[in-house]
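This follows on from our talk about sequence and fold. Go ahead and set the record down below:
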Amino acid sequence: MGKFYEQLSLSERVYVQSQLELGFKAAAIAAALKRGPSTIGRFHPVAIGST
């Protein structure tokens, strides 16, 4: 079976964006949301250093 990925809710997206603007790292944001860092990277690639 493949992996199941649940999209970020609107409130999670707002939280991620605000935390990124405050300078928090993707790993810290992911831990706070109990999500994997790659989830944050899929939402906002710049958070993990991609362009």
